[in-house]
Amino acid sequence: MPELPEVEHVVRALRPAIVGRRILAAELKLKRTAPDISRPAFNRLLKDALITAVGRRGKYILIEFESGQMLTTHLRMTGKFVALTPDDSLPPYAHVIFYLDDERRLVFCDMRQFGRMRIVPNPSKLPKELLALAPEPLAPEFSEEYFLSTVRKSHRSLKQLLLDQTRVLGLGNIYASEALFLAGVSPMKDASTLSKPRARKLYQAIRDVLQEAIDSGSTLQIDLADGNGSYFGSSERFWRVYEHEGEPCVRCRAQIKRVVQSGRSTYYCPRCQR
Length: 274
Hints:
Blueprint: H1 4-18, E1 22-28, H2 39-46, E2 49-57, E3 60-65, E4 70-74, E5 79-84, E6 94-100, E7 105-110, E8 116-120, H3 128-131, H4 144-153, H5 158-163, H6 173-183, H7 196-215, E9 221-222, E10 231-232, E11 257-261, E12 264-268
Antiparallel strand pairs: 1-2, 1-6, 2-3, 3-4, 4-8, 5-7, 6-7, 9-10, 11-12
């Protein structure tokens, strides 16, 4: 599943491609992608809408319109945007098609069909899942004081806490594992037992791994014109522990382990992380 850095790069690719463009028609081919609205209403609300901004809140993509409406998109496991010329064939798993005023089509493809869209009538009507999100982890609101308080109040494992988007935003399996490794903290450790100095170290590690992933191009390179789905060029070389089970730790050469926590894979060094 794309995490915050991947979604940030999708947003950066979408901005120059669609801001200033008008949607002539919107075709909802797979109803479950936008389950809260009918197909005719989806088209009616977005027809002739002028795109004024593309932003992000956690892992949600926010497309804003001149009317004040907003289209929220969560990519989930396999959701992808593709921009097509009139001569391009429709790619597989095309579930939503936006016909733009420059003759291109912006297509949302999703092989696993877990991606979701929602039309928000105005900023005061944000859905509860957006309102419940924690502060942006690279913004001033995600302060050291906020994080220390969040850790102190939780009796879950640190890995479980880091995956809770209402407490720490934007992390998934990849960057939770990477941040815990960088901080030298065990993913199984009870959050409330973490000392202040180590919690401060984890706080900084979260910010560092996310910024590193964004600056390095993240795990994805985005090309909206690529008909195969627009995402290619994994940068797995930046991962220190994720998907390195059985390999030597880059710090101490101990063998990287994998455990399953709440059905999710966690990678860690049993020697470096305690």
